[in-house]
């Protein structure tokens, strides 16, 4: 029988690992957008801070949103509870208390992820080194996920792990989509429309979704199709709907699951029923907010039922 | 040739493997021959193999620092085992059983009629001043009348070869996981030695521990729910808590995982709801067990646990209050305690002990402080003691004052010359002092570990074996010489 505390720690360890990975992806998408856009369009880093939901703290501590300050805040700042380094540390502290539940190699990798980031984060804020750092962070998180999938007994503990990972992933995928909707480009004027697609390419790439999109959709990159792919696709692992199906599958293995399942089913209907092609930027942003709130509700219900 | 026994000097001490003549003791002969044949390169290889086994097996103890959180340190281990002949061990084993049996009768008596006090064998004022006597436990009847279910007694051997009990740890003795892991390391590193020697196995301990704990369960059910209660990951013995829980297939819990309801039943919180707990192997001190009964600020314990225990709905091992016999002044009475309850002579000796609360003995201690070891009654881990012959005059004066101010709290013993065993220093062997901590389990039946944890002071000349103060450990072999090699 699994202790509630242990289930809670596994769930959060997985959430923090996934959060670190996706925060790194989020920085990547914005970095690439900046490179792709014409120089006369000034796209800043403010939206990223807002999307991560800690703008208040940022403005208390910083007076400018220049790239360096924002990156430092998101990657390595101790005072930011959502910084990558803090996520990795939290993942490690949670994993430490469940070392008897997860395979040793996975614990060592989680430990290593934190130690690596701590050693390299502050010296890797410039663009070139940053790329390497973020890639290592993403790879480190993927290694943990792979080790756990390949070596941990797929019991209740693993269900809590998968739920944590997928809830976090669903949430972060909406945030990454949001980068594109919230930021930039005053409604597409004619001469900017070529860039529209480039930007969606970089969103896809930051989620390692570009190739899969091409294989799946077999069409050129267009906004409505990208949104459909990232939010409604059943088979792509970083798509919102896919992540909710994973959570559903886990819940089905667990006792007294009726309340969380009810919330989940409603959420799935909402995302599948959305007319994405009709959502303009503001509406898309609003829709993403709704999805995030529902995820928070689902988290609260899981918490109340099991922890 | 790396190890030359000819240059290994053991004059004036008892060495566990080598006699004064320089020749190995019979049980150590095959080992010494084997070691002698090793080249420097082999020794390096064996040491590296042991270190890698320790790393791979994750054997650590935890040191906590503010900055880094907790740090796991690898466990210092010496690859040369300590060997004890089985026939000698059988006497020690009988002596330990006798001792723990008497101690349990003593504790049970103290919380009931206090007959031993009424009969003036044990002084009343000692009981009154005892820091570990828990009035909350008076009148409680734990299963089988046993209070100290797990006891770790420290044994030492003096220069004349006599084995003494140095102290009995009855609160939350630790170290047994290292005893088990040390054997695993040795099997990996020296498999061929195990083929040639008849070494008694130690691996039975987790099953024995489980059976003992199960024998305490209040519910008559097939599989009682047994949990190990740990203070958490920052405790220095967390590795051991997790290890034992895993080995027994018991749940490792923290205080916040448990809850006592108004019917005085104990439950753990699981994803399926509350689940009843029968036996708690607790690895936290009395004072932190239950904020209702003891320290109200404790974050580690479980409110209401004492209620549940007194009602007989849950077993606690060790029982609260068992520490009353884990006190160096009480220790000095153990021979009397054995005679009083069992009407037998002690089979293992106590180290001669002067009790400072008795005037004549106190005067003797103060006059001879330069020759004696002075220990506070209630500290463990080698803290707060004075080793007279090695201390400065200033330190001795300080202890004279401490003794005068609080005589009840101090005892003194002659400085024993602890026995040694060959220990690797670089690629050479040198004698290092050691002790031995066997573990005694008492429930329905009594069980003594085969050998125990040998702790060795790695610093030259040092006799302090605690891991927090530069100690390491060795595997302990009880070898059967009679049934052939």
Largest sheet of chain A: none
What assembly state would you assign to the polypeptide chains in this entry? heterodimer
Bin the strand percentage of chain B: 15-25%
- Strand residue percentage of chain A: under 5%
Q: Any idea what the radius of gyration of chain B is?
A: 23 Å
Largest sheet of chain B: 5 strands, mixed
- Number of DSSP helices of chain B? 15
* Tally of DSSP β-strands of chain B: 23
Residue-averaged pLDDT of chain A, rounded? 89
Poorly predicted runs of 5 or more residues of chain A: none
Shape estimate of chain A: globular
Structural class assignment of chain B: alpha+beta
Task: Supply the number of helical segments of chain A.
Answer: 14
CATH class of the domain at 91-157 and 203-342 in chain B: Alpha Beta
Give the number of domains of chain A.
1
Q: Any idea what the radius of gyration of chain A is?
A: 19 Å
What is the correct CATH architecture of the domain at 91-157 and 203-342 in chain B? 3-Layer(aba) Sandwich
- Identify the overall geometry of chain B: globular
Topology order of chain A in helix (H) and strand (E) letters: HHHHHHHHHHHHHH
Kindly, what is the distance between the CA atoms of the first and last residues of chain A, rounded to a whole number of angstroms? Answer: 13 Å
Neighbour order of strands in the largest sheet of chain B: 3-23-22-19-18
What report would you give on this structure?
The complex is a heterodimer of chains A (307) and B (485). Chain A has one domain (4-306). Helices cover 73% and strands 0% of the residues of chain A. Chain A has helices at residues 4-36, 46-51, 55-61, 67-75, 84-96, 104-120, 127-151, 156-182, 193-206, 210-217, 223-232, 240-253, 258-273, 281-306. The model of chain A has no long low-confidence stretch (mean pLDDT 89). Among the domains of chain B are: 91-157 and 203-342, Rossmann fold, CATH 3.40.50; 352-414, Dna Ligase, domain 1, CATH 3.30.1490.270. Chain B has a 5-stranded mixed sheet. In chain B, β4 and β5 form a beta hairpin. The longest helix of chain B has 25 residues, at 86-110. Chain B is globular and about 70 Å long. Chain B starts with 28 loop residues before the first helix and ends in a 6-residue tail after the last strand. The mean pLDDT of chain B is 91. The interface between A and B is medium-sized, with 18 and 21 residues.
